[in-house]
Amino acid sequence: MNAPPTPAMTINDVPVYFGDVAGLPDVLSNDYSSVHILADAQTMQFCAPALRSLSWPAPAHWIAMHAGEEAKNLDTCLMVWRQLTDQGADRHSLVVNLGGGVVTDLGGFCAATYLRGIRFLHISTSVLGMVDAAIGGKHGVDLDGLKNYVGVFASPQLVWIDPAFLKTLPDRHVRNGLAEVIKHGCVGDPDLLAMIHGDLSGMAWDDLLLQSVQVKKQFVEADPAERGIRAALNFGHTIGHALETFALETGYDLLHGEAVALGMLAESQIAREVAGLPDAAVDRINTAVRQVFPELGTPAIPPEVLLELIGKDKKRRSGHVHFALISALGVPSIGHQVAPDLIRRMLSYDS
Amino acid sequence: MNAPPTPAMTINDVPVYFGDVAGLPDVLSNDYSSVHILADAQTMQFCAPALRSLSWPAPAHWIAMHAGEEAKNLDTCLMVWRQLTDQGADRHSLVVNLGGGVVTDLGGFCAATYLRGIRFLHISTSVLGMVDAAIGGKHGVDLDGLKNYVGVFASPQLVWIDPAFLKTLPDRHVRNGLAEVIKHGCVGDPDLLAMIHGDLSGMAWDDLLLQSVQVKKQFVEADPAERGIRAALNFGHTIGHALETFALETGYDLLHGEAVALGMLAESQIAREVAGLPDAAVDRINTAVRQVFPELGTPAIPPEVLLELIGKDKKRRSGHVHFALISALGVPSIGHQVAPDLIRRMLSYDS
To answer: Which residue in A149, B38, B303, B316 has the fewest CB atoms around it within 10 Å?
Structure first.
C-alpha cells in the first residue's frame, strides 16, 4: 500500500496537491453523502475519462455545462443548482469542479451558495486555472457581461493540479495561461520569466507551475480579501479587462490571457513613466510576451472607447481608477492614478 | 448633542440596536461611497417615510421589490443586482434592507454576493423579522419553490429593531411573527409563553421582542453554522415546512408562522410520545398557540402527502428526517427519528 499523497503546499489552509489525479480519492474524507462532478464540454470529453475509474467515497453524479466565458453566468448557475437538487445533493455532498477558470469560478460559487454552502474542490485542467483561477478563493460569475460581478470568497477542500491534463489543451490555451505566469514573474518572481520560452514542449512545466503558484500564494495569504497588496496581481489587467470587454462586445476573438498580455505591454510602458520601471525591464517583459504570443495583435479599439471602458469597470468596482504597476521586475507598485493623456500615448506602443 | 445609540446586545459580534430608527445614521461609519435601500411594496409605503428624512453618510438610492414569499427568488435577485450596478454601487457601498424576513433574507444574499460581498444592514420591520429572520446570518432565496436552497451565511453590519414599525403591520402578520416567539418560549425561555396573550395591544412588546431575540442569540452563538444545537430552533418547522410547501403548491393561504404554529401543535404531541414532554407542557403550548391563532385551521392535507413532503425536504437537505423536539418547556431535544405511523396518528390531533 502506498502512502497517500501529500500537498505540495497550503494556501490560506487550502491544501494544493500536485501530481497524478488518480491519487485524489486517497485524500478525500469519507463522510460525504454524494459526489457531483461539474465539467464543461471540453473537460467532459478530454479529462473526465481519467476520473471515471476512480473510487469516490460516495455515489458520483455528473453535471455538464457549456465551455467558455459566455457560459459563466447565472443561467448556468440555475442549471447547476437544479441538477444538484435533482441528483439529491444535501448538506453532506461534495461538488468536484473539473476544468479551467470558468468551471472552477462558477462551480465554486454554486457549491458555496447551495443550501448556504456545501463542500467543494477544484481539479484544475488549464494553465490559467492551475496558476491563477483555482487559487485564492475567489468564485463567481458574470452579470450581463460584467465580469465576476456576482460571487463570493470561499475555500475549496483542496485544489488538485495534474500537469498531465495540459496535454488535453490546444496550444492557444496553453499560451493563454502563460500570460498569468509572465505576470507572476513581473510582480513577484523574475526567475519565472527566464523559464518561459516559445517552444511549449521544451519547458520545465512542473517547476514553472509550482513556482508560479508560489507567487499567487504569497499575495493571497498577505491579503485574502483583496483589501490591499493583492491588487498587485492586477498588473496588466486594467487595460487587459477593458480590451476583453471590447472584444466580447464586438465579437473579436481574444482570450483572457491574451488580453492580459496586451495589457502588460501597455502597462509596462505606463510603469516606466509613472513608477520608474527601467527600460531594460520593459524590454524584458516585451520579449517574454512576444516569445509566447509572437503573432498576437491588438483589436482596433479607438483610444477614447478604451479609456471609457477602463473608467467604467474600475469605477464601478472600486469607485476610482487605480493602476497596479511595478517599479522593477518582481516589485509591485499599486494605487497609481494615471492621466488619460498618458494612457492615450501608451496605447500607440505597437504602431 | 445626544450620545449615539448603543446596541441592546451583540450576536456573533453583530450589534443589535433597539429603538427609534432616527438614531441609525449616528452609528454608521462614514466611509461608504453610496447607500442602496431595498424595500418591498409594503415597506416602501409604510416604513420608507421614516427613513426619507435621515442624513445618510453617502448618496442614497432606493430599490423596490415585490412583497411576499413568492418574490424570494433568483429573478428578484437579478433585478436587485442590476439595480445595484445601474445605481453605481461599488465595493464601498452599503445595502440597507428595510423589511421583514423576505427582504432581509434576499437583500442580505444579494449584498453578500455583489462584487463578492459588500456591506449591508437590516432594518427589521416585522415581528418575525425582528425575533428571527434578521438575526443569525442566514440569507438566501427559494429555488423553484424549495425554501432557502440558494444562500450564504453572512454578517450584517448591524440589525436595527424599531418596534414602532409594528404599527404598520396588519394584525395577521403580527400574529404570524408571534409563532416564532412561542417557539422561542418552547425551546429556550418558558417565561415568554406567559407574556403572550390574544390581545395584541396589551402586550409588553419591547420586553417580548428583546427576550425572544435573547433566545435566538443563545442558539446562534452556540452554533453559528447550524451543525448541531442550533437545529433546536426548528421545533415546529419539520411539519410546519411541509404544510407551507403544500399550501404554496395548492394555493392555500397560509403564512410561515401560521404553518409553524400548526407544526408546534402536532410536534408537541410527538414530543410527548418520544421525548417525554409532560401533558401539562403540551397543554401550555396548545393554549399559547390558540390564544394567538384562535381560528387557525389545518389545510386538508392527506397524511401520506404530508409524510412525503416531510421526507423529501428533510432528506434533500440533510440526508435524513430528524425532528427537533423538546423534552420540557425550555429544554430542546434534537435528532429524533420518528416512525411514520406516529406522525400519521398525531396529525389527527384536531379531529
So the answer is: B303
Overall residue count recorded for chain B in this entry: 351
Task: Name, in order, each residue with C-beta under 8 angstroms of A107's C-beta and a sequence gap of 6 or more.
Answer: A38, A80, A95, A97, A99, A120, A122
B114: left (phi over 0), alpha (psi -120 to 50) or beta: beta
Side-by-side strand order, sheet with A9-11: A9-11, A14-18, A159-161, A119-124, A94-99, A35-40, A60-65
What cell does A198 get?
516559445
DSSP H or E run through B153: strand B146-153
Q: Which three cell numbers stand for residue B218?
A: 443563545
Catalytic residue among A119, A122, A217, A241: A241
Please list, residue by residue across A216-249, b when 16 or more beta carbons sit within 10 angstroms of its beta carbon and e when fewer do: bbbbbeeebebeeebbbbbbbbbbbbbbbbbbbe
The answer to whether A333 and A275 have CB atoms below 8 angstroms apart is yes
Question: How far is it, in rounded angstroms, from Cα B324 to Cα B226?
Answer: 13
If pLDDT is split at 50, 70 and 90, which confidence band does B145 have? confident
Per-residue pLDDT reduced to its tens digit, A1-60: 578 899 999 999 999 999 999 999 999 999 999 999 999 999 999 999 999 989 999 999
Instruction: For this complex, say whether ipTM is above 0.95.
Output: no
Q: What is the pTM of this model?
A: 0.94
Q: What is the Cα B275 distance to its own chain's centre?
A: 26
Give the C-alpha separation, B11 to B28, whole Å: 18
User: HSE-up of A137 (CA within 13 Å, CB side)?
Assistant: 21
E-state strands within B300-351: 323-328, 331-336
Left, alpha or beta for A54 (phi > 0: left; psi -120 to 50: alpha)? beta
C-alpha cell at A239: 487595460
pLDDT of residue A1: 54
User: Any idea which residue has 517547476 for its cell?
Assistant: A207
pLDDT for the residue numbered A265: 96
In angstroms, what separates the C-alpha of A91 from chain B's closest C-alpha? 5
The segments of chain A whose pLDDT lies below 70 read 1, 348-351
| pLDDT of A351 | 38
Among the partner-chain residues B88, B91, B116, the one whose CB lies closest to the CB of A138 is B116
Q: How many CB atoms lie within 10 A of CB A253?
A: 8
CB contact under 8 A, B316 and A90: yes
Q: Let me know if A336 is exposed, middle or buried by CB neighbors in 10 A (0-12, 13-18, 19+).
A: middle
Average pLDDT over residues B99-115: 98
- Is there a contact between B81 and A149 if contact means CB atoms under 8 Å apart? yes
What percentage of residues in chain A have a pLDDT greater than 70?
Answer: 98
CB contact under 8 A, B85 and A316: yes
User: Is 60 exceeded by the pLDDT of residue B30?
Assistant: yes
Query: CA-to-CA distance for B274 and B264, rounded, in angstroms?
Result: 15
Give the mean pLDDT of chain B. Answer: 94
